[in-house]
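@channel sequence for tomorrow's demo:
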Amino acid sequence: MMPATSRDPALPRISIVTPCLNHAAFLEETIRSVLDQNYPNLEYVIIDGGSTDGTVDIIRKYEKRLAFWVSEPDAGQYDAINKGFLHTTGDIMGWLNSDDKYLPWTFATLADVTSQLPQIEWITSLFHCFWDPRGYFARCEAHAGFSRNLVLRGGVLPGSGFYAPAFIQQESTFWRRSLWDKTGATIDISYSLAADFDLWMRLAQKAELFCLDVPLAGFRRHSAQKTANHMMEYLRQARESFAARGGHPSGVLKNFWLKKWGKLLRFFNRRHAMACAHQGYSNHAVLNVEKGQWELVN
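structure tokens (generated this afternoon):
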């Protein structure tokens, strides 16, 4: 099922995949958050696992604006994402789960910064937004920085016993197809819950992670969430991936002082200093408003 899709060759092609299964209550908001940006070089794919709750009717409502969609049984969320990416060609890639939402400026911002700064192969936001079950904006957390070094040292895996300021927010993270190809062009579905973390580990082995001081997306919190309801298993799988992909946490003594120091600095609202001390550096893409250009700062 492959209707026409929008294209403007002057802008980078952005490919987004949404996996879904019986999420009719949320899916239309997710789709609208993608399509209502009216980005002129978008390739949007929806892979449904055979829903029976009205999901397919919602997809059909928008099918003329989709690059591809299908509804058939699959091996789960990450299998659906892999299947979806096989139907994409864009330079900038990402996935949006069927209960989450982008912000109105996400694609325009991504296109701008990746066009001006071609050295960026992988980018995430410093601002993690959250929606409540009704889809209303509920919260935005500011984080000091993320980097390749932080990922490889376990600093994006809270709950693992060593200092980790925050998870990387999946829906706010994007990468170039060239980097995707370097890392095997697939998500490892053997990690049924933590395949996103496993992808971060593989991307970090090949490229620096850059940060954007602009919020890009939000994660919807609700009672039926798979990861939220199985967090201990998620962490177990993520730790397994961390070890398998060559992760190397800081030593016991350093982690002890990082935790103590982190609590003190958070008390004084100086998380940025803590992150810089732990990572060594964090590469941020910042818009120079006067010049109208994106610049990299450490």
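heads up for whoever presents: The longest helix spans residues 252-267.
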